[in-house]
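Blackboard transcription, Thursday session:
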Amino acid sequence: MIWSKYSAPQVFYPLAGRLIPWFAAVAVLLMIVGLYMGFFVAPTDFQQGESYRIIFVHVPAAWMSMFLYVVMAIWAGVGMGLNARLSFMMAQAIAPTGAMFTFLALLTGAMWGKPTWGAWWVWDARLTSELILLFQYAGVMLLRTSIDDARRADRSSAVFALVGVVNVPIIYYSVQWWNTLHQGASVSMATGSKMAATMLMAMLIMTIAFWLYSIAVILARVRCVMVERESLPTWDEKPAAMSEAVEAR
Amino acid sequence: MSHSSMWGSISGIIRRDLLLAMRRWSDAAMSLFFLVIVVSLFPLGVGPEPAVLRTIAPGVLWVAALLTCLLSLARVFTPDYLDGVLEQMVLVPQPLSLLVLGKVLAHWVISGFPVVLLSPLLGLQFGLEGEALGVLVLSLLLGTPTLSMIGAIGAALVLGVRGSGLLVALLVLPLYVPVLIFGAGAVTSSVAGIGGEANLSLLGACLVLSLFLAPWATAAALRIALE
Amino acid sequence: MQWGSASEFFAMGGYGLYVWTSFIATALCMIWEVLALWRRRVAARAEQRAALLGGTDETAA
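(Written on the board underneath:)
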């Protein structure tokens, strides 16, 4: 099976190393294109003025934060099901990047909310579920760092990540429901105006750029994790340099 | 496994845990005192304005119930973990999730049900009366078992981990959010005269969902902790 | 192109503070993440090398 072939550390480690520069290069390229389109091609929004341009980082960051949590939970689930160490390492590598995007989604959301709604923070369903998502990312990472035994750390944080997957949609809908009760706080994220095609295009390009960036960073981190966990990896990409160093002694 | 022996193993666990809790009744009493003190602090901090108190009552009472449940979570598995009983439980032929269900139900009887019984008194402190008081009791009756169910997952995950007291709070509180929203929402809408039925049925749905999923997740977490 | 001048571009129609804070914060987070990973990698490889050399030392002795 292809999966088992590429999941072997000695195959995966150098393969990931070769892929990282490509993902990173395309990510940077697309970010430049996306920023150019976002700032110079996309027109001014007639309702929100220039402040709407925040969505070119806000929406991709928010999408990535949710998407990465699901991907992390899938790797955690695969790790539990197949008892695959690499899956757990992937889940471990995804968490910090996901948490970073969640933080950015909240920060840029506040930056967008202040001029648009007149408040840095409203208890809107999306903002609230992002906040809880950040807590859950923190929980996954803190649980891992608190447990010394690597095997238990892997599995315990996997269980928590999977439980969290059930929680976030429930929170989203419960806050939506709750906001219909508290009429005053009901604000709609919808801009009311139809998005220009170039706006949508810039947002999609930025999203793909953030996605590729995430892949590059996560692969780099999973390689670090692999080196840290295996005391003596024999699958380093430069075995010659290593043996030279040994010879030199 | 037959139906009767399933129930037998659950009720056996419940009886045993209740007996043990009775011997250490001061633990349960302490969490209740904590609840009363926390709830009493709010009027002192916010001021005695009855309209304000009535507005914040559902949230305050529910958050206090959440924290009380959180404080008692360490008692669900830790004693059995320390004296090795938990390791035996993993080995017995009955499914671990059933035994977990028994332990969680016992935990609810010890620490959740007293909160429900005490809540009308606390509600009176905040000027809740009539129907709202009834909805408060009903919402806690439906919600606190869910808190115990979800809390057990966290308690099992942090079993024997350093700094587990704070960690379990960080893990469990985000998972408590839906219960808090529906529970406090039921009381709020009752105070507002809309009636809390919709929120109460959502609380019931949360309870059913947690009854199905939580014992299973808790059992998985316990197996991991005991490996 | 909708910008008359560079200062108009940086002002972002009066929303410059919000827009640029968002973009700069995002950029800083990403740069920080990449740098942190770079340092983590250097540290991990140094440790790995030390372990390898230490290992041969023992067998030599």
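Lecturer's comment: Chains B and C do not touch (no CB pair under 8 Å).
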